[in-house]
Design goal:
With 181 residues, the protein is an alpha/beta fold. Helices cover 23% and strands 14% of the residues. It has four helices and seven strands, in the order βββαβαβαββα. It has a five-stranded parallel β-sheet with strand order 5-4-3-6-7, with helices on both faces. A two-stranded antiparallel ribbon has the order 1-2. The longest helix is centred in the last third of the chain and has 14 residues. The relative contact order is 0.22. The N terminus is likely disordered.
Length: 181
Amino acid sequence: MSAAYETTPFETSQPDTTQPESNPSEGTRPCVLFLDFDGVTHPEPCKAEHAFSQLILIEDVLRQHPGVDVVISSSWRLQHTLDEMRAHFSPDIAPRVVGVTPSNKQPSNAWLPGAAVSFEREGECDTWMKHNRPWGTPWLAIDDRAHWFRPDCADLLQTSSQTGFLPEDQAVLAAMLQERL
């Protein structure tokens, strides 16, 4: 899939995620994993040589659960194309990376750059789901920032930003995916 780009005076070039990225009834898997990068696939902060050092742990779990599509929810989506981000994944997992979440920040007189929106990341996941999957499709997110999700969000696997996704998180992820498949 190639990403379409549009630029407004208020934002940098970024993928246009306002349109569905796939037909919700064709070629989709029964579950979606929203994946953050910084603080998940590697610690934050992270030296360049350690970037994506923990992605292999997540991919190992995904190989055991072929019914899962991956959507990038990381802020990397604002600076990198889907193909650039997909290149960090193993060749067998990369085709399952099907899109990026939209940014729900809409410039207006009331909007301030950097101002947090309540449960912002969860809202972006919900928006992507509404446009790309049938109602009720199960999902989960791996993120290091719990405050971007409702406090009672059962669809969040939280990592520590200082360590990222760890081997002990694999069993938790596997169990959460199994519940949804």
